[in-house]
Amino acid sequence: MEAITTGFERKSGFPMCGGALDGTHIPIIAPASYPTDFYNRKGWYSVILQGLVAHNYCFLDFDVGWPGKCHDSYVFECSRLCRKMEEGTFFPPIRKNINGVEVPIMIVADSAYSLASNIMKPFPEGTARGPRAAFNACLSRARIHVEHAFGRLKVLHNFCEMQNVAYQELNEDVMDQPEAVPEQNDVPAFSPAEQIREALVAYINS
Asked: Which Pfam families match (predicted)?
């Protein structure tokens, strides 16, 4: 884990990052059961692959099979990764004092996810200026690793298809899921998560 956090900071400037989290849509043929649940906002049928990757694009955790209309935050909240993050058992208990604040190992994610002490998200677009805009840019440089990992995974899949490489198809029984939830709002000011984010803003801009 120290190698991962060091790797993220070396490549992006973001400290104490243990992984980059995001979701992507995998196209499917409309299933016979609950087809509308798999019809995503982009206008096609899919399942969601949610992944957590390291600085070297290797997957640390993944969850696949949720219907395409589900929101990224809902998929995360239903995952084993989320439970382990809440319990504090996914990462080792390593902390770093940054500007007087004890900062744990964190996940970086986009604005679809909820801010927490161990999940950092950007400040809302349009309101982030100066140091906060620099924080957003730094977080984005760390988070882009998960998007690159998804790209590599899809290229590998296409290669397997073209070369007729045998692989096992997933067969998931997915029940009806609730409608997608709106983008997650920030937590109240002066919460531990906000204090950590402000400490990171100062650190990144120092």
From this structure: DDE_Tnp_4
